[in-house]
Amino acid sequence: MGETSLKDILVVIQRTINSVDSRLENHGEQVSYLCLQIGRAMGLSDVQLLPLCSTAMIHDIGAYKVEERQRMTEFEVIDPHEHAVYGSLFFRYFSPLHQMADAILYHHWKYEDRFRLIDDRPVPWEGFLIHLADRVSVLYKQFGKRLPLAVEDHIPRMAETVFDPKHVDTFIHLLKNTDIIEKMLDGRYLPELYDYLDSVPLDWEQSVAYLCMLVYAIEFRSRSTVTHSISVEACARQIAELMHLSDSDRNILRSAALLHDVGKITIPIDVLTKPGKLTPQEMDTMRRHVVATSEIIGGTGLDHLNSIASSHHEKLNGKGYPRGLSADQLCTKSRILAVADIFTALVEPRYYKPALSKDEVLAIMARSAAEGEIDTGIVGIVEDKFDRIISEMDRKQREALALYDNVMWEYDHLMQMVHSTLGISPVSDITVGKAA
């Protein structure tokens, strides 16, 4: 993954957010572009602006809650803080941009409330700039080509109260003297933004850190789903080490394992966590996640991961899905990921079944290998090193569950502080993890 750019990773994360709700399409890109242009006009260098623009691109990482997404697309919202609080926790605990967590926490804070703080954390100027850019993007969604008039009507009158007046003055100057809005309207802003982000290379560790943030954002929807991709990655990594794959192949496999279920963000949580057998229609919905994974990853600099991540339900005998690939079309890394996914599903408890015993797991996998579905040699390695693999998976699962419990507690604590600090009442009784 040495050739991966910041753009590649951020586009995958933003596509995942978009796939939850089409109303958020290109929202992150627009907010990032506006922050870049306003920041430049304020005299900041592109290097100084990089953390801000990266954060702005994925500032809605916590925005999967259905009820709040409906409010987020309105210009003036009473309580838009749920996704901001939740997103800030992902930045704080899982992101290479952890220093930007407070900018996310406060990105719907009004300028007039700048001295009303959570745990005495100052409001970063980046939070106010993201807020302004976010609201301009919402106006674009509402008014389309009438955006220039909408901006002139709404934004200046909110300086000093909602928005930082310095940011408003700079933005209005850009509005009157540049083609910043015209570029938003005709789409020219996207190549400009992507060229900027594409110039920043990421090493493998940085790429994995971003991918882990995305995985947790998806799987933290429920305590029962939080360990799956992390466990699959741990299992695949152990098998790859036992097979003596090269460092490059191991890195590719680990990253593909982290991304393999990214398409599940499009699956309703009641289908993902259904305690009984899925209906044929529900099974079709569930199987759709593989296609969604491919659509999210495809066409980016992560195409080398796509063929592996999106083939984890293919079978060597050609009877898998979604493409019905056969043995000669499935590389070693794809075969390892398929075995790791099945193994994890068998050893983990699910809503509809308990965790299976070692003998039961190995019997099922041996039968699947005998029927030509999965690689016999890889299954043999799992059988031989079962205890080692399980031990590492158990360690990663305990870590993930501890993180989940901590984030859930801190989310509730921070939401209470936000409502108390701002003197507002919750507009709903949404609990993190329940919404699809």
Summarize the structure.
The chain is an all-alpha fold and 436 residues long. The protein has 21 helices and no strands. Helices cover 62% and strands 0% of the residues.
Commentary on this structure:
With 436 residues, the protein is an all-alpha fold. It folds into two domains: 6-198, Hypothetical protein af1432, CATH 1.10.3210.10; 220-397, Orthogonal Bundle (Hypothetical protein af1432). It is 62% helix and 0% strand. The chain has 21 helices and no strands. Helix 1 (6-20) runs parallel beside helix 12 and helix 2 crosses helix 7 (125-143). The two termini are 32 Å apart. The model is unreliable at 429-436 (pLDDT under 50).
Keywords:
Hypothetical protein af1432; 436 residues; 21 helices; single chain; disordered C terminus; mainly alpha
Largest sheet: none
CATH homologous superfamily title of the largest domain: Hypothetical protein af1432
What is the overall number of helices? 21
Helix/strand class: mainly alpha
Number of spatially distinct domains: 2
Tell me what the CATH architecture of the largest domain is: Orthogonal Bundle
Say what oligomer this is. single chain
| Whole-number mean pLDDT | 89
Envelope shape: elongated
SS elements, strand count: 0
H and E order? HHHHHHHHHHHHHHHHHHHHH
Radius of gyration: 23 Å
Q: What is the CATH T-level topology of the largest domain?
A: Hypothetical protein af1432
How much of the sequence lies in strands comes to: under 5%
